[in-house]
Amino acid sequence: MRAVDDVVDDVRKAFVAAHDREPDGIFSAPGRVNLIGEHTDHNEGHVLPFAIDRRTWVAAGRRDDGTVTVRSSDPGTEPVTAAVGTLDRTTGWAAYPLGTVWALEQAGVGPSGWDLVVHGEVPLGAGLSSSAALESAVALAVSECSRADLDRFALAAAGRRAENDVVGAPVGIMDQAASLLCREGSALLLDCRSMATEDVGLGLEAAGLGILVVDSRVRHDLADGGYADRRAACVAAAKALGVPALRDADLAAVEGLADDVLRRRARHVVTEEARVFEVVELLRAGRPAGVGPVLSASHASLRDDFAVSVPVVDALVTAAEGAGALGARIVGGGFGGSVLALVPRAALDEVATACRAAALGPEPTVREVAPAPGARRDL
C-alpha cells in the first residue's frame, strides 16, 4: 500500500487538474470486514465489524450552480454530471456518491452543488464494502464542508438511504456505521435496532494472530435478486413467528416453522446472533484464538441454512482451515466475494499459498488486513 500522504497529494492534484482550484477538503473512509454477525443487521440484530486498512478518498469542492460532478481515478469510469434535483435518478457507479449527496440534501445539508473526485483502494465486489467506504467518505466530506451539525450515525443513515433508494440494494446500516465509527485495533459491537455501540478490542497482535481476507474474485452485486430474496425470507419468517424481527425469535419456535426455506433462513439468523455474543465474550476474556471455531460454524450456517455461499468460496474455506487457519468463513452479502480467515502469524504464508492452490476459478487475491480507524479528514 502507498503512504497516505502520497495518496492524498495525488487526489488533490487530480481535483486541481479537473477543476482548476483547490478542494475544500479531502476525506477518506475505510472498507470493513464483519468478524461475525452476517445477515443479522437487516434483522435488527447485532454485528461485530472492524474497519480495514484499505480506504476510499474523496476530494470535495462546493459550487453554487445546482450541479454535482463526480469523477473517479479509475480509468474505466466516465465523469458524471447531474443537476441537484435529479440525483436520486442516477444509475451506475455514480449512484453511490450522488445518492449520498441526495440523501444528505433530503436531510437539509449542503449548498446547491459539489465537485467530487474519488480515489478508491477498497477492492470492488470482494465483500469488503467498497460502496460503504465511498458513501461514508462522501457523507463526511459534504457534512464537514457544509459545516453541518450531523453526527456519524446520521451520516451512516444517509449512506444507507443512498443504497436503498437510489442504488436499489436493500442493505442494513452495518457497513456505513463500521466505516464511520470503528476505532483502530477494535471491532464495533453494533445493535442494529437501538444503534448502541461498544468498542471491543481484538487483541490479535498480542495473541500472535493475523486476519487474511481471501478475495475469490467471484463478484457479487447486492442489488441483484439473491440478497433481496434472503431478506424477504427473513421478513416472512418473522411474520410467521409473530415477532418484530428475527433478533426476537426463539430457536425452538424457529424449528417449528413448517416452511423448510423459512426455517433454515431464520435458524441462521438466530444462531448467528448467538455467535456474535460468543465471540464478544471470547475477546473480552482475551481469548481471540477461540474465535476460530465460531467462524467455521458461521460459514456452515451461511452455506447450509442461509444458502449464500458458492463452491469456489467453500473450497477456499476448506483450504485455509486445512493449512492452519483457526477458522474461516465467507464475509459480505454472499454469492461470491471474500473469505475471512483467522490465522496464527507463523502460518500466514502457508494459508495464503494453500488458498491460491485451491482456487476453482481465477487465482484469488490474498491480503492481510488490520483493524483500522474509521472515516476522517485527511486534508
UniProtKB/TrEMBL annotation:
Enzyme Commission number(s) from the entry: 2.7.1.6
Gene Ontology MF terms: galactokinase activity
Keyword Transferase recorded: yes
Domain GHMP kinase C-terminal span(s) in chain numbering: 280-357
Entry keyword set: ATP-binding, Carbohydrate metabolism, Galactose metabolism, Kinase, Nucleotide-binding, Transferase
Pfam families xref list: GalKase_gal_bdg, GHMP_kinases_C, GHMP_kinases_N
Keyword presence, Amino-acid biosynthesis: no
Domain GHMP kinase N-terminal: 96-181
All copies of domain Galactokinase N-terminal, residue ranges: 14-61
Family: Belongs to the GHMP kinase family. GalK subfamily.
Family matches, as PANTHER family: GALACTOKINASE-RELATED (PTHR10457:SF7), MEVALONATE KINASE/GALACTOKINASE (PTHR10457)
Protein name, entry field: Galactokinase
